[in-house]
Amino acid sequence: MPPRENGQDQPVIRDNRKIDPETGQVRDVSAAEQAAEQPPAAAAANGELEAQLAERTADLQRLQAEYVNYRRRVERDRAAVREQAVAGALADLLPVLDDIGRARDHGELTGGFAKVAESLESALTKLGLSSFGQKGEPFDPTVHEALLHSYSPDVTEPTAIEVLQPGYRLGDRVLRPARVAVAEPGDATPASNDDDEN
After folding, report:
1. Is the dihedral of CA 171, 176, 181, 186 positive or negative?
2. Cα–Cα distance, 125 to 127 (Å, whole number)
């Protein structure tokens, strides 16, 4: 009979139970003792499993990051599509607002029509539509469209002296520039020609 691991002819007994039968408590088995009990092939298999686990974890983290980025992109695209749809609808209503403004200027906005106009303007304001363009504002070509030009000694910079049609914006987006008459600093009288002197 061949000798046993302990060098004796008696069998080697290893108690791998997690609970001590005498005390009923969980045994504390250290990782070093577990590694010593494992054969080298099992240790190599554990190393390979840990490498696979790390690889799968990295793949899952990458997929989760891609999904979060996808959700953000979809939400941003939805907001952009909504803003474009609202801007398109509001742009179609600008002539109606112009008609209401002209009726108000001529005193024809009375009675039930005035209530309807106020309700419409209130609803459009809730959607984010705001008008701009005031008399006396400095001329800004990014938000103003100059329809008339003149010179005036009363101004120190190009200034909107009259608003012919108000501009509208939705948030930071200009739906229609304000159409204005612009005056620049200078003498209002035309310069004399050489033909007049002859």
Report:
1. positive
2. 5
Amino acid at 40: P
Task: Count Cβ atoms below 10 Å from residue 174 Cβ, excluding itself.
Answer: 14
- Type and span of the H or E element at 32: helix 31-37
Can you say how many angstroms the Cα of residue 20 is from the centroid of all Cα atoms in its chain? 61
d(CA 40, CA 49): 14
- Quick: pLDDT tens for 113-168: 889 999 999 999 998 899 988 888 899 988 999 999 899 888 889 989 999 899 99
CA dihedral 133, 138, 140, 144 (to 10 degrees): 30
Cβ atoms within 10 A of the Cβ of 71, count? Answer: 10
List the chain residues with pLDDT less than 70.
Answer: 1-8, 29-43, 188-198
For residue 73, the model assigns a pLDDT of: 96
Burial class (CB in 10 A: 0-12, 13-18, 19+), 55: exposed
